[in-house]
Specification:
Blueprint: E1 4-8, H1 13-25, E2 30-33, H2 38-47, E3 56-59, E4 62-65, H3 67-75, H4 79-83
Parallel strand pairs: 1-2
Antiparallel strand pairs: 1-3, 3-4
Helix pairs in contact: 1-3
């Protein structure tokens, strides 16, 4: 199973929504809170190729994107295989 990392802030409704979906899928993830953390936010933005909003979600080496991107993968039937380690 690939490592899942999600950059968040505590009051972000999109972060909460994305974490709920991951929880529903029964997968473990590492949450990285970037609220008030300039260095953490800068690292996230660099890793996310310029995207500075939260959440930013990574599954293995793949940058999934934000909450809407995660839900789109799920709607298209692509999220479960990705969570199990199959990339595309």
């Amino acid at each position: 199973m690939p490592t899942i990392e999600i950059y968040t802030t505590p009051i972000c409704p999109f972060c909460i929504r994305a974490k709920r979906l991951l929880d529903k899928k029964g997968v473990s993830y590492r949450e990285i809170d970037v609220a008030g953390d300039r260095a953490g936010r800068a690292a996230m933005t660099e890793r996310a190729q310029g995207r500075s909003t939260v959440p930013q979600i990574f599954i293995g080496d793949r940058h999934v994107g934000g909450s809407d991107d995660l839900f789109m993968l799920d709607a298209n039937g692509e999220l479960d295989p990705l969570l199990q380690g199959a990339d595309r």
